[in-house]
Amino acid sequence: MSVFDGLRARLDRLIAEAGGGGDVRAYASGLRDAVIEAKAAISSMRDQAVATERELEVEQRQLADAERRGRLAEEIADQETASVASRFAAKHRDRAAVLERKLEVQREELALASRELEEMMTELRAAQPGRRGATPASEAAWRDIQAAGGVRPELDFDGELHRLEAERRLHEAAVDAQLAHLKKKLGRE
C-alpha cells in the first residue's frame, strides 16, 4: 500500500465534487493541501531510505569484521572461534541482503511517489483559480522566474512546509512553557 493511497482517495473525492459543479476554489485548496502532505511524506520516505542505507553500511562493516575474524582464527587453527565467526558472518550476510532489498524497494517507492507528486502538482497548476485568465505573456514570465529559481507564491510548498514547521515549534514551546509554569505552581503548593 502506497503512502499516497489516502491522498489519492481524497483527491478522487475532490475531483468527484468539483466535477459535479463543486467549488473550484475548494478543489484547488484541497489539492494544495494534498500536495503539501505529499511533499512531507516524500521527505519522510527519503529519511527512511537514508536510515536504511546507514543500517546497511553497519551490517556490511560487521560482515567484513566477522569474515576477517574468521580468517584470522583459521590462520591460527582456532576452530571454535572460526566457527563462531562463520555463524556471525552468515547472520550479517543475511541481514545485509534483506537491507539491500529493502533499500531497493524504498528507492522504487520514492521514485513512484515523486512521479505521483509531480502529477499532483501539474494538476494543481491547472486548477489554480487565478490561472484561468492568465495571459501567455504572464505565463512565460512565470516560467522564466521559475527557471531562475523563483517560486510562484501559490506554489511555494516548501515555504508552506517551513511555515507549518515553525508554527508547530512555537506551539510546542508554548505548551512547554505552560507545563513548566504549572509544575512551578504545583511545586509551591
Question: Topology, please?
Answer:
Elements: H1 5-19, H2 24-75, H3 79-127, H4 136-147, H5 157-188
Low-confidence stretches: none
Write the H/E string, N to C.
Answer: HHHHH
Assign a percent range to the helix content: over 70%
Beta-strand residue fraction: under 5%
Task: Measure the end-to-end span.
Answer: 53 Å
Largest sheet, strands/sense/barrel: none
Task: Give the radius of gyration.
Answer: 26 Å
Count the helices. How many? 5
- Give the overall silhouette: extended
Mean pLDDT: 78
| Overall SS class | mainly alpha
Task: Tally the beta strands.
Answer: 0
Describe it.
There is one protein chain. The protein has five helices and no strands. It has 189 residues and is mostly helical. It has a domain at 5-131. Helix 1 packs antiparallel against helix 2 and helix 2 (24-75) packs antiparallel against helix 3. The termini are far apart.
